[in-house]
Amino acid sequence: MTKKILINDDPWQIRVAIIINNDLQNIYFGSKTKEHLERSFFKGKITKIMPGIQTAFVDIGQEKSGFLHNSEIDRELALRKLEEGALFEPLKPTDKTEKNEYMGKCDISKVFKEGDEILVQVSKEPMNEKGAKLSTCFAIPGRFIVLMPNIAKIGVSKKIKSKEERLRLKDIVREFLPEGMGAIIRTTSEEHESKEIIQDLNYLIETWYEVNKTFKQAKPAEKIYQDIDLSLQIVRDYLDNDVEFILVDNKDTQLQVYKFVKQVAPEHAHKVKLYQGPPSLFDKFNIEKQIEQALDKKVNLKSGGSIIIETTEAMTVIDVNTGRYAGKTSLEETILKTNLEAADAVTRQLRLRNIGGLIVIDFIDMANASNRQKLFKFFEKTLKEQDKFQSVLLKISEFGLVQMTRKRSGKTLTQELTNKCPTCKGLGFIKSNQNESFEVLRKVRDQLESKKASGQILLTVNPEVFHYLINKEYNSILYLEKTYRAKITITSQDDLPDASCKIQQLN
Question: pTM to 2 decimals?
Answer without folding.
Answer: 0.80
